[in-house]
TrEMBL record:
GO terms for molecular function: mannosyltransferase activity. The chain crosses the membrane at residues 15-34. This is Uncharacterized protein. GO terms for cellular component: membrane. InterPro entries: Glycosyltransferase_domain, GlycoTrfase_DXD_sugar-bd_CS, Nucleotide-diphossugar_trans. Keywords: Membrane, Transferase, Transmembrane, Transmembrane helix. The keyword Signal does not apply. It comes from Coccomyxa viridis.
Length: 357
């Protein structure tokens, strides 16, 4: 395509995509971008039919083309690249192929995320009111001393995304709140590395390894009734399609939020509600009970969900009596067999986020 037409086409594509984003959201629009090549009315638009006549060729054509390419709307670029990611990424693994190649198993990689960095973390744990304790982090690192430990701050996260998911870099940088960035990073870490992700307000009683045996994904439900899975504690093999489904929906929800942030957006666009929705869709007909807790066979992979009272969650978030009892037990050195750790819920993700509807 000659440069001028290329530019006009980009402009038209961007126009159509923008209209589409407003009306339908990103997933439908990515389909449109792909379909556009076959669709006659759109290709007319792309040839510049409705966006004015083409500029005459000049000696500066190449230069202007370069600047036009440089100002290509980031969202258009991201949408096309995201679509490519959907179709296939070098970091994808089919769960069965993964087992065949590696013998299976969730890799021994422990991820912590604290985007404001190590120094800020040091400051936080010194602050009494913060409720964060260094010993919790140390207990998890210490009980997985033969694992690879990855501590993610904003800089390392950005480098990771720039390298492996460059189409997501700008979106990541553009999130207006740290909590959104932290949530968004998790499924990418699971997709690329696998391993165990836990929040920094989780204490470990022992190694998680035994509880992961034979599983492709292990998730935690934190509420009575077990109709939820959370993103504060999760383990996985790398490249699993579940993470791709999470990433896709996460991007769509975020685009629908139009940059607005409240507690609902946080829960929906990267937080627990997103995980619940995708888990329900993903397990589809295989979900025999309304509760997520238990063992699931999905697309040739094994997913285990631990419920309230097991794995890392002895107590519901607000159950002060239960947390006090736990504190006593732990102090006396009585650690329950069914628990590998304790989510203390000191994380203050709500700070500075306006309440949703
Ligand atoms: C393992 O966890 C327990 C309980 O949190 C802790 O007391 C112990 O120091 C940890 N082990 C190591 C090697 O860090």
């Amino acid at each position: 395509m000659p440069p001028a037409a290329n530019r006009a086409s980009l402009r038209a594509k961007w126009l159509v995509l923008r209209m589409c984003l407003v009306v339908f959201g990103i997933a439908s629009c990515m389909v449109l971008v792909i379909d556009a090549r076959q669709s006659r009315w759109v290709s007319k638009l792309m040839r510049g039919g409705t966006s004015g006549s083409q500029a005459p060729a000049t000696p500066f054509e190449g230069i202007r083309t370069l600047s036009a390419a440089a100002s290509e709307p980031a969202e258009l670029h991201d949408a096309i690249a995201a679509e490519r990611f959907q179709q296939g990424s070098v970091l994808d693994w089919d769960p069965e192929a993964y087992r065949a190649k590696t013998g299976g198993g969730i890799p021994r990689v422990l991820h912590h995320i604290f985007l404001d960095g190590e120094q800020e973390y040091d400051r936080l744990v010194e602050e009494k009111e913060s409720g964060f304790k260094r010993e919790w982090r140390d207990s998890c690192v210490g009980n997985h001393s033969d694992w690879t430990y990855l501590f993610w701050d904003r800089e390392s996260a950005q480098i990771f995304l720039d390298t492996h998911y460059p189409w997501f870099s700008a979106t990541f940088k553009g999130y207006p709140k740290t909590v959104l960035q932290g949530d968004a990073l998790r499924p990418f870490l699971m997709h690329a590395f696998g391993g165990l992700y836990i929040d920094l307000d989780v204490q470990c009683f022992r190694s998680v390894e035994e509880s992961l045996l034979g599983q492709d994904i292990v998730l935690q439900s934190e509420y009575k009734g077990g109709r939820d899975v959370v993103n504060s504690i999760m383990a996985s093999v790398p490249g699993h399609p579940f993470w791709k489904a999470i990433i896709t929906e996460m991007l769509e929800k975020w685009h629908h939020a139009h940059g607005h942030v409240d507690t609902d957006v946080v829960l929906d666009a990267g937080g627990p509600r997103l995980y619940g929705d995708i888990f329900r869709k993903f397990t589809g007909g295989s979900l025999r009970t309304p509760a997520f807790v238990g063992a699931h066979q999905v697309l040739g992979s094994r997913i285990a969900v631990y419920g309230l009272g097991t794995w890392f969650v002895p107590c519901e978030f607000e159950d002060a009596v239960c947390h006090a009892r736990m504190a006593q037990e732990v102090q006396q050195g009585r650690l329950r067999e069914e628990l590998v750790g304790w989510h203390h819920y000191s994380g203050s993700w709500l700070a500075g986020i306006p309440k949703g509807k």
